[in-house]
Design goal:
Elements: H1 4-26, H2 29-54, H3 57-79, H4 89-101, E1 107-108, H5 114-125, E2 130-139, E3 145-157, E4 163-174, E5 185-191
Antiparallel strand pairs: 1-5, 2-3, 3-4, 4-5
Helix pairs in contact: 1-2, 1-3, 2-3
Length: 192
């Protein structure tokens, strides 16, 4: 059961979180660092109090872990607001696939993956939090590259307030000459 001091300390932690959110929204870098220190101080004060009150290291570790997870959750929500936040996963997937489909029609002959770079720019312009996971070339038996694959992920907070990750792929399949299969290529891109 919580006593008055514990309730006051928990309110101090909550107020410090709110101050951090407010200063982040205003874009005050020095203020954010100061507010972050205040959050850390408030959490330390609460855990120190709980340590003396309960005398249990396990309870203190659990409270620190819960406070850290709560802080991480708030920081992610504050720092990574995307245009997908608050959407269901199917709706967010549809939005990402709409962006991808804008750049995958036709055959391409450039040497610098212009439509692929346009996909990344368009995802960013739409406010979608994406991260490139890896890329790779596939080769034929003569070790000539025949396709290139980009794998990426999209992070957002779903309509139930839970962090959600979707994974996507962009594949450039060569349809050029035997000597240079990627001299002309077709794109396929999707997110699931």
């Amino acid at each position: 059961m919580k006593d008055r001091k514990q309730i006051e300390l928990e309110k101090a932690v909550e107020k410090a979180h709110q101050t951090l959110d407010f200063k982040y929204d205003l874009g005050l870098p020095g203020g954010i660092e100061m507010a972050d220190r205040e959050v850390s101080r408030a959490i330390k004060e609460l855990t120190d109090y709980l340590k003396t009150r309960r005398g249990s290291e396990k309870a203190v570790r659990q409270n620190k872990r819960n406070a850290a997870l709560e802080l991480l959750k708030i920081a992610k929500m504050v720092m990574a607001e995307t245009s997908l936040d608050g959407m269901s996963k199917p709706r967010a997937m549809r939005k990402v696939n709409e962006v991808l489909s804008r750049h995958t029609k036709g055959f391409f002959t450039d040497n610098s993956w212009l439509p692929v770079n346009a996909i990344w720019k368009d995802l960013t312009a739409e406010g979608i939090d994406w991260t490139l996971e890896n890329t790779r070339y596939d080769h034929n038996q003569d070790q000539v590259p025949t396709s290139k694959t980009w794998k990426f992920k999209v992070d957002f907070i779903n309509d139930r307030g839970r962090p959600t990750t979707m994974y996507g792929v962009v594949i450039a399949s060569g349809n050029g000459s035997v000597e240079n299969p990627l001299g002309s290529y077709d794109l396929v891109a999707y997110c699931n």
